[in-house]
Amino acid sequence: MESGSQRVLMYLTEIEEAAEDVLTAKQQIVDLDSKRNRNREALNALKTEMADTEKVKVCFGKMFIRFPKSKTKEMIQKDQEQLDREINDLRKGLKAKVNRLNEMQGKPELRGYNLSPLSADEVKAINSLLKR
Amino acid sequence: MATTKVPEVRDITRIERIGAHSHIRGLGLDDALEPRQVSQGMVGQLASRRAAGVILEMIKDGHIAGRAVLIAGQPGTGKTAIAMGIAQSLGPDTPFTALAGSEIFSLEMSKTEALSQAFRKAIGVRIKEETEIIEGEVVEIQIDRPATGTGAKVGKLTLKTTEMETIYDLGNKMIDSLSKEKVQAGDVITIDKATGKITKLGRSFTRARDYDAMGAQTQFVQCPEGELQKRKEVVHTVSLHEIDVINSRTQGFLALFSGDTGEIKSEVREQINAKVCEWREEGKAEIIPGVLFIDEVHMLDMECFSFLNRALESDLSPVLIMATNRGITRIRGTNYQSPHGIPIDLLDRLLIIATSPYTEKETRQILKIRCEEEDVELSEEAHTVLTRIGMETSLRYAIQLISTAGLVCRKRKGTEVQVDDIKRVYSLFLDEARSSQYMKEYQDSFLFNETQTASMDTS
Questions:
Q1: Which residues from chain A sit within 8 angstroms of residue B285, using beta carbons?
Q2: Do you know which PANTHER family this protein is assigned to (chain A) (predicted)?
Q3: Which residues of chain A are within 8 Å of residue B238 when distances are taken between CB atoms?
Q4: Closest CA to B295 of B24, B458, B71
Q5: Is A126 on the interface with B (CB under 8 A)?
Q6: Strands B198-204 and B68-72, how do they pair?
Q7: Sorting pLDDT into bands at 50, 70 and 90, what band is A129?
Q8: Contact flag B282-A116 (C-beta cutoff 8 Å)
Q9: Chain A residues touching residue B169 (CB < 8 angstroms)
Q10: Which of the residues A89, B112, B320, B365 could staple to B68 if both were Cys, CB 3.0 to 4.6 A apart?
Q11: By mean pLDDT, which of A103-112, B69-78, B446-455 is the weakest?
Q12: Residue B99 lies in a domain
């Protein structure tokens, strides 16, 4: 009896951990996306509102530093690329995690889940079918 | 962007017509594949239902493809019902194509073309589409129009989810499509990143007021969760035939709608097979072998049967289910006799399920189910009388009497069909046996009467 309840506990802990994993990844994507959006706003502001200034004040942690505009732009753009990559990786990992969770809970695997998407051209060609 | 205004779609309640097998919801099996006596509209036929259930499981697992099943039995013993049951239990994701054996004879299309189209309709291809979308609730839209009236407009759009909020700068094009969609603060919208297409999902719940004067179409939705820029994945299932059609559009794209697709060149088919196989190798597509159901299969002729033989061996082949009510008879187009009117070499490849006539109890059950389906109330005695009629004439005739008796009953403003109503329609409409009896008595007064030919040509 004791070993039985032990096993159930183990099993539930494992499921909880897997679920926690999924939730963390989701939250991380949200955080990264909000950062990405802030960066995008900054880039827009640099382009429109700061069009005529040579140097801009950039906030690093707790300090504002005057920095050349072109350098700042470059920096943010690099950051954006990095963020895009990270979000992509997280999304890829998220699938595996959700699948693992489903498997543990004895739920069926989602259909068509592991397919890789059609390319844009192919989607265009087949679109008249899909948008019925 | 096209400027034509799309007419708003009004919701109409779908009127489902009542068909002969519309009461079938599945095969009526429990988890251990044991048939229940009465379930999901199916009654009796336990052995054949269990057999169908085994085949159904194999189809679901994708274990069998390129196999064929024959359902054989007397008229009115539930052959089509079993096929419908299989179709219903397969669910919407597995393609199920049904056709009658005589449907393939057409002037516009050769028999084999019609058959291969039917085969390809029964094979599904699952593909995935992936799009990046921005989804959020509109907090504020601000559009600055130049004072002169002409020139570039600029604007800002603030979107939020439950987690974050951000400001987008708007260009001229986006402003146009936003005003075309009549987007205002409080709407929940999605923007397709690749095309810039805006879709309104509804209004946010937080903006719902009961005194707002708004149309009935306004839908309230929750403010979206999570990140603003999401990745949306949509899985579609299309049939091979549909892909064939868009790729062989010699008559323009209208062909898809008019249904008159004509013949599809075999080169087109080969190309598509190659493309689909390529997709499968790349992990872009999954092939779902579905089910092709051919009713009245004895109507096919020798050429069709040899085509079927060949087609079943192809690697893209669905599960073929056929039904027939013939015994040993001539194969159409030949003088050879064969069981079920099917050549021996094809019969050899088939799994055969037999159906047997219904017992009185089962007939009673079926009539009860049909009464519920057709919304006719039957008194206990009328039910007994109808069951007797069903046993003595045929089940189909008894089922016909249900709705007619229902009408008679409604005409005399009754609520429940009584024995008298049944008697009345029984005297009004002849069953097959009485009709032939009548013919025999009065055959001399009919036109073009040939007394010599006693039996009907059944081929």
A1: 115
A2: P53 AND DNA DAMAGE-REGULATED PROTEIN, P53 AND DNA DAMAGE-REGULATED PROTEIN 1
A3: 126, 129-130
A4: B71
A5: yes
A6: unpaired
A7: low
A8: yes
A9: 44, 48
A10: B320
A11: B446-455
A12: no
pLDDT tens for residues B2-61? 444 444 444 445 555 667 777 888 888 887 778 887 788 788 888 888 888 888 888 777
Please check the confidence at residue B256 and state whether its pLDDT lies above 60.
no
* CB < 8 Å to B241, chain A: none
CB contact under 8 A, A116 and B128: yes
* Residues of chain A contacting residue B231, judged by C-beta atoms under 8 Å apart: 91
Q: Is A11 exposed, middle or buried (0-12, 13-18, 19+ CB in 10 A)?
A: exposed
Inside any domain, residue B108 = no
A14 touches chain B (CB under 8 A): no
Q: Is residue A131 part of a domain?
A: no
**Inter-chain CB proximity A37 and B253 less than 8 Å:** no
In a domain, B352, yes or no: yes
The CA distance from B442 to A24, in Å, is 86
Is A39 within the bounds of a domain? yes
Comparison of pLDDT for A94 and B3, the residue scoring more: A94
Q: Return d(Cα B156, Cα B139) in angstroms, integer.
A: 11
Would you tell me which residues 39-98 of chain A have a C-beta closer than 8 angstroms to some C-beta of chain B? 40-41, 44, 48, 91
Q: Which residue of B has its CA nearest to A37?
A: B166
A41 CB neighbours in chain B (<8 A) are 166-167
What is the C-alpha to C-alpha distance for residues B107 and B26, in angstroms, rounded to an integer? 36
CATH number, domain with residue A52: 1.10.287.370
- Considering its fold, how many domains does chain B have in total? 3
Amino acid identity for residue A101 in this structure: L
Q: Give the dihedral sign, CA B393/B398/B400/B404.
A: positive
Residues B294 and B420 in one domain: no
Q: Are strands B350-354 and B68-72 parallel, antiparallel or unpaired?
A: parallel
Are B52 and B174 within one domain?
A: no
B234 with B269, same domain? yes
Total of domains in chain A: 1
> What's the gap in Å between the CA of A6 and the closest CA on chain B?
31
Instruction: Please give the residue of chain A at the shortest CA–CA distance from B237.
Output: A130
Q: Rounded to whole angstroms, how far apart are CA atoms B287 and B276?
A: 8
> 10 Å Cβ neighbour count for B253?
10
Yes or no, beta carbons of B282 and A26 under 8 Å apart: no
Q: Is A115 helix (H, G, I), strand (E, B) or coil?
A: coil
Nearest CA in chain B to A23: B226
Q: What residue numbers bound the domain in which B397 lies? A: 360-443
Q: Is the complex ipTM higher than 0.85? A: no
Closest C-alpha among B91, B70, B90, B78 to residue B21: B78
